[in-house]
Design a protein that fits this description.
110 residues, 71% helix, elongated
Length: 110
């Protein structure tokens, strides 16, 4: 794997873009300008965990009855978090349905 702007290998930097969810994805995409593998994973992190965070906040603040949805969203987020970190560390460009296509088209516009 090639070195990135951070001086780390691409798979490690892609892994780091998922560690803190959308926040680490945002930091990585602002720093890394050249490595398309890393930029893809950073943008996928921003979109995936940003959307899950917004959904969790929306359901959590509306009604108590939606609390079960917040728990379900958090379980989905945990599973995706682990899966995406493992796949990126393995050097795989693992695309989530819909989100992966959005990440590919948006990563160079950011």
């Amino acid at each position: 794997m090639a070195k990135t702007t951070l001086g780390l290998e691409s798979n490690v930097t892609a892994f780091l873009s998922y560690v803190l969810g959308w926040i680490s994805g945002l930091v990585i995409i602002l720093i890394e300008k050249d490595d398309q593998f890393v930029r893809f994973h950073a943008m996928q992190s921003i979109i995936t965990f940003g959307a899950l965070t917004l959904l969790s906040m929306a359901f959590g603040s509306v009604f108590f009855i939606f609390g079960i949805f917040v728990g379900l969203i958090n379980i989905i987020a945990l599973i995706l978090w682990i899966l995406l970190m493992v796949k990126s560390y393995q050097g795989e460009k693992f695309k989530l349905p819909i989100v992966g296509d959005m990440a590919e088209s948006w990563m160079n516009k950011f």
